[in-house]
Amino acid sequence: MPYTPEMIEELNMLNRFNLTTTLEGIKVHHDAEEAVISATGRLFEKGLITQVDGGYLTDLGREAAEHSQAVLMILGSPPCN
Asked: What does the alpha-carbon distance between residue 5 and residue 63 come to, in Å, rounded to a whole number?
């Protein structure tokens, strides 16, 4: 199953979280791009973040963010020949 545009926005949102600390959250303001606001709301509905406008990662959200950021790092690295 390919990624949908909505999934990509959600992954992009998860990639914004700083995984080196649990004390840092994200706040999405009302004047942010509609795609970002919608993705944040969907992550909240799925139980990955604590607030509809961002907040902190839940345990499940942290796991998802770790995987998302790992995939980004792998795909962004130069090819091994």
From this structure: 21
Residue type, 4: T
**pLDDT the model gives residue 80:** 67
As a whole number of angstroms, the distance between CA 77 and CA 81 comes to 12
Q: How far apart are CA 49 and CA 32, in angstroms?
A: 18
Q: With beta carbons less than 8 A apart as the criterion, state whether 51 and 24 touch.
A: no
Nearest to 22 by CA among 61, 72, 51, 80: 61
**What are the per-10-residue average pLDDT scores of the chain (81 residues)?**
96 96 93 96 98 97 97 85 64
Answer for the pair 43, 56: CB distance below 8 angstroms, yes or no.
no
